[in-house]
Amino acid sequence: MAEKRKYNRVQKKCKSVVESMEGVTYSTINDISEGGIFISTPEPIHPGSTVDVELCLSPEEKITLKGTVRWIRIKEEDNKKAGMGIQFIPTHKEIEKLKKVISR
Q: Which of 14, 59, 78, 88 is deepest in the core (most CB within 10 A)?
């Protein structure tokens, strides 16, 4: 199957907080790209929902990005965790911050 991603994923572990009208999800991410992120959670937010994603890179450094939930996986399958794929809707300033995080 051909890879559809526009941006390369980078292995990066950090805590995250996702807020939407449906509630708040706390999780740890394992990888990230300039275009989006996968959040592992047993209770994903509905596709199409707009969310605020806070990435806690360290106790002193956090980035908050807007995004849209693009897809969800309700059950774990084939070693893939339940969760949601979020596409970022960043501003130019946030893109620059995100590029620095990914390049570390």
A: 88
**Strand-pair partners of 71:** 85
The model's pLDDT over 18-59, given as tens digits with 9 standing for 90+, comes to 999 988 999 988 788 888 999 988 889 999 999 999 998 778
The helix/strand/coil state of 100 is helix
Please tell me the total count of domains within the chain: 1
Residue 95 host element (H or E)? helix 92-103
Does 43 map to a domain?
A: yes
- Per-residue pLDDT averaged across 61-88, rounded? 90
What amino acid occupies position 80?
A: K
What's the start-to-end Cα distance of the chain, in Å? 30
Q: At 69, which CATH number?
A: 2.40.10.220
